[in-house]
Each structure stands twice: as C-alpha cells, then as structure tokens.
Amino acid sequence: MAQDTISHFSHPGHELVKRHYLSPYLCDMCWEDLSGSGYGCGARCDFGIHESCAARPLKLSSPAHHAHELVLVQTRRDEELACDVCVGGCAPGSFLYRCPPCGFDMHPRCAQLPQTAVYSSLHSEHDLTLVLAEGSCAACQGQDGAPAPGRGWFYRCSACNVDLHVSCASAGDGEEAESNHVTPGDVLAGVAAVHNNIQVAQALARLRVQGGQSVAALARPSYIKERTKYF
User: What are the TM regions of this chain, as residue ranges (predicted)?
Assistant: First the structure.
C-alpha cells in the first residue's frame, strides 16, 4: 500500500501528499495525463506526479542501451532534447533516463516499451518486434516533418518487411486495459500522449511571453492543461 506522505527527489524541499486527482492534469515527471491516485506537493506548489512515477527507479538497465546503466534526471528548462528511442521531443524541465557517458536519452515511458509481440492498428497482419536498424517508416515516409530514413528504433514486421517508428506504431492504439496490468497497448498509447503534450508545450513556448510569465512557466504541465483549449 502506498504511503500517504513521501519525500521525493523530483520535488526537493517539500513533502508530497497522496491525492486523488479528479480533473485532467499532467504529471510533472512523465507528461502523461494524471488522474486518479497520485502525489501532490503538501506546500501547495503546482506539482503532481503519478503514484507509479513516484516509484520509478533512479537507475535502470535497458535493452535500448546495453552499454551503460541509465539514470533518471530532470532536464534543464533552457534545453530542447529528443528521446533516442521514439525520436519525440523531451519537454524542458521534464524527467528522462540518461546515459551520461554516451548522451543517450529516453522517455520514462519508452523504458517500458515491449520488445516483441506488439500489435499495431497500422499493421494488424502480424505482431511487431522492436529493433535498432536502418529503416524507413511505412506510416510517415514522405510526409512533411517526418524524420529522414536512417538508423533508429523501429517496430518491425519481418514477414512483410515493414518498419514503423515507435511513435507511429503508437498512434491510435489507446484501448484501455480491462485489468490493472500494464499492456503493450497501454505503453504505446502513453508514448502517443507524451508526444501530444510536448507538442503543445513547444507551441506555447514559442508564443510571445505576456503578463510577466516566463517561457519556463508556459511550459509547465498544469499551464498546458489550462490552455489546451486554444490549440
């Protein structure tokens, strides 16, 4: 059973109190929607995280980066980074798993990506396998803004010789699980949610700063939730 009050490295100086979130909110760690059980700042700072994010390990090993252990860090608010697995943006001030020697970065959600037997609505004929290879995404190839073909992480159907970006494979696969277990569909839907929320953050950060609010403030998850109706 989760504790009612915890101290957590993601929000030093204040204790976090267990809360039940009723309205839409974004988790300050993973940038996914936060509803239901979570932890919020006991001093009423604008800070909240999932109960599962509070339990994330500070270090982990990942098949996506065999060379070294990855460390959970918070990015600076003046840097724009991309996840080396899904190629999606990492919002300024967000948390990610990093290999300091190699400069490898990965969304916390991407650390949960299943390696094999993944169904995608974009290629329902066969299961897909996560591979690091030279490839070209069958879903977004040739579209404006799409990553250029090259070496990266893809979900691959070897039988059909079809490759999909991690982010493309996740599009449209948001069915809810009927149990408390995390399914491949849950993980892929989470990747899609992170991409959407970060795109909104980047759009807000490009706006003219008004009313004395900084770009960093505009990019905070709670501010994004309040302003998404304008996008």
Answer: none
Domain coordinates in residue numbering, the chain: 5-54, 59-111
> What's 26's DSSP letter?
B
Tokens of 195: 């991409």
* Among 86, 65, 62, residue whose Cα is nearest residue 165: 86
CA 92 to chain CA mean position, Å: 13
CA distance 64 to 180: 26
Sign of the alpha-carbon dihedral angle for 84, 56, 225, 140:
positive
Give the DSSP letter string of 149-193.
SEEEEEEEETTTTEEEEHHHHHTT--PPPSSSSPPHHHHHHHHHH
Q: What angle do CA 154, 168, 99 make, to 5 degrees?
A: 50
Segment 166-206, tens digit of pLDDT = 878 766 454 433 333 344 455 555 555 555 555 555 454 44
Q: Looking at 5-19, 122-136, 195-209, 213-227, which range is the least confident one?
A: 213-227
Q: Report the alpha-carbon distance of residue 178 to residue 20 in Å, rounded.
A: 21
Quick one: CA dihedral 176, 182, 187, 188, positive or negative?
A: negative
Backbone φ and ψ for 73, nearest 5 degrees, come out as -135, 160
Residue 147 φ/ψ, nearest 5 degrees: -60, 145
Sheet order of strands, 16-21 included: 5-6, 16-21, 36-41, 48-50
Residue in 86, 151, 73 with CA at minimum distance from that of residue 112: 86
d(CA 78, CA 92): 6
